[in-house]
Amino acid sequence: MVKTAKVKKPAAKTVKPGPKRAAARAAKKKPAPKTRTQATSQPKAATPKQRLPKGPIWQWSAMDTAAAIRAGGVSAVEVTEAHIARMHEVNPKLNAVVVDLSEEALKAARAADKARGRKGELGPLHGVPVTIKENVDYEGRPNPNGVPAQMSVIAPSDAPVVRNLKKAGAIVLGLTNTPEFSFRGFTDNPLHGLTLNPWDPEITCGGSSGGAGSAVAAGIGTIAHGNDIGGSLRWPAHCNGVVTIKPTQGRIPAYNESAAAERPMLSHLMSSQGPLARSVADVRLALEVMSRRDPRDPWWVPAPLESEKPKRPIKVALAKIPDDMDVDPSVHAALRQAADHLERSGYRVSEVEVPDISGVWQTWCDIITNEVVVMQEAKMLAVTSEDFHKAWGGMRAKAEMLDLAGWMQATAQRSTHIRAWQLFFEEYPVVLAPTTVKPTPGPREDTVSAERVREIFFNEIRFISAINVLGLPGAVVPVAVHQGQPIGVQLIAGRYREDLALDAAAAIEKRAGMLVRQLWDKMA
Length: 524
Known about the structure:
Amidase signature (AS) enzymes, alpha/beta
């Protein structure tokens, strides 16, 4: 494991004590002094005919929570109060949620309970608590993206993903932390500070959706929103032991009205919004909700979420790892374990070489770096920290600086790579690959040196970042816990075949179990 210096835990600074009403309700529970956040708690609204999920409310899945609210077994207010209590209990140590929306959430929950009593169809996430990453527009609030100089950027409207979640009935508990400009794979910034991993403060929670991953793993919200341009959904899912799907580009609409300018084309085509959750079923539900049309995104595609399944047994390619990648034995073991779970579920797994993963990664690095250098670099460096400069410098050093002809050739090469992978999926509809090939690094590992940054991105998480330039869907599901750290694997499928990636992830989850339960036992 990579050795890291001892990290000081961040001071609690954003989440205030819970509302009096929540405390009063908790105080009335029997037997004293236990509260609704403890393992023995169940809501008072339960009746013998309404079988509610086991455990405290904050541990329930999004699907179970929505079903319980629809059935009247529990109110949206009770659910929201339980999640707020959990947030106030664990977030001061983690610094995952950096904007507390408790009062707004309780107001929305009360409205949700009134709506349930009226005629009309309820949304699939009616009353279900979620979090939003603080780099998309949330109406009326700043969208600083981890940068103090951007606190004056106020969102005039909700981003599509926020709008879709709210329309589905979700209750937003708070906004989660992200690194400066969401550019690092480690979640730390001068505005809110460092976010810690609930499994171990000595390892990173990942980035840039590190606050989202840390929050949902610790039990703050059932679903966390995040986004991914180089691994920012899949890397935190791996680090925090939760599930995610990076959708095909165009699956989930994206737009920030607060942005001063449109994003460069290829950066937009390599970026995806998406959910993190504790189970595959919840990720699938969140994907369906987030994917609904928004006319503000010209790249949104009305593709079906389910398509015809390949002939069984479905062939899975266990990706051969390039010889120049230094692989930890624990990663080999996790991949073999995942392959065995798939075989036992009726898949046919073969270890094969996938199309030019190293060349694909270099294309991703060259395209995104050159676009940033031309369009954003000077402005970003003027308002960011020395840590950001170190991390960005490491990424920039690995890229080839291109002239106009070179950049056009690189973007054309992207089509060649996508075609090769699409043809590969004709024989192997799913690819099983690592997320990282090494143990999870320390919380600020990308500030050590430029060489360490290149090592992390090119050697360790090459299989994550490369997939962004292809625009392919990739799911991550936890498989094992090794020396106290969760290990996940990646399932990659063809364009708009999120269903195949999630089906394979569900087959692994069925046998591996929901690993965050081990975390909750540890945190108790």
